[in-house]
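Re: the request from the purification team.
They wanted to know what the chain is likely to look like in 3D before they choose a buffer screen. I agreed to run a prediction and write the result into the notebook, where they can find it.
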Amino acid sequence: MRSSNEEIYLSMGISKTVYDYGCTIEKSLRDRFDEVDSNAEYNQLKVVNAMQQHQVSEACLLGTTGYGYNDLGRDTLEAVYAATFHTEDALVRPQITCGTHALTVALSANLLPGDELLSPVGAPYDTLEEVIGIRPSPCSLREYGVSYRQADLKPDGTFDYEAIRACVNEKTKLATIQRSKGYATRPTFSVQQIGELIAFLKSLKPDIICMVDNCYGEFVEPIEPSDVGADMIVGSLIKNPGGGLAPIGGYICGRTDLVERCAYRLSAPGLGQEVGANLGLLPSLYQGFFLAPTVVASALKGAIFAANLYERLGFRVVPNGSESRHDIIQAVELGSREGMIAFCKGIQSAAPVDSFADPIPSDMPGYEDEVIMAAGAFVQGSSIELSADGPIRPPYAVYFQGGLTWYHAKLGILLSLQNMADAGLATLPEVQ
């Protein structure tokens, strides 16, 4: 005779108080979860339709080595991405090592010496600071003669259109728009907001290239930034579109001429997309993309659950418990180094891999502050899997994301709260 759900949660270290509180929160979210499932259904059909349109076959799953000439599976996968995201072309490669690499390829391919890069959404994500040259680094864009400007957001997190107008000049070549919040506590931008920003930028300078860092946002909404005017969208396969199965990779989707330059930068001028063997990874890339809408839905449910659970305990959460969702990341401001460590230890204890490990703050490449990370992932660094991380700096916000299944996300969040409560850093309410 099997035990009840409550019994197995309790056997995994969750107190009845935390369990009952979690159940109360979950019951209040049924309508929100129905909306998430409806969106997942739409996006799932969108992906299947693209695969059928481009006749994905068994032959597309075969591995190639060497130069990778005439790689049917690789070329078809790129056609599937382009069809799903409604772009002219796509570059989807295991040779792109991460999201930062994909962004670097897109920027360095389409910016020349004397050009200027504009961020109309404030400071970029930490790892792009050295890419741009905000923090000095060999091979940065600044070293190659590309200048940089940014228009900071208003205090409420909205676009400062007048500041943007003042930044655009004859040298402005490309605008980079980071959809997700990164390690900031600003709101994530909706696709609609991004579309309005792109329209404004194009009104100032019609030939400006608008690139969107789409990391953490794929399949959260029924449309993508490429549907509202983005010339390129860029992301990582170990986040949303890889569905937890892609072991590596990144994508760049957009205008044919821009993607072609990206392919030349990734490989070599004259070779471009013609080379790059798939190394037997295509089954994981195809199946991961197929599963991605459902996996993203699970992660979204986890984020909504976490927001409501911690908000009702008095913690500031971004987005808040009732706001619409535009990425899978949930920021929780814990107010102290100790709070971040306790939260991340709870997430780590829920992991299927390395659950016994204790995450500790440490230096990481590309980051100025110490970073703590909790991630018991099947793919190292995969943030579509259950994970939590953040730089150790005020306001001591931890960034929770992922969960290949809703049930695993739920377990992780409950254990994070249990660990916070055990450390005296969270006070639980009485559940009626």
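For the purification team: The first helix runs from residue 5 to 11.
Please add any questions underneath this entry.
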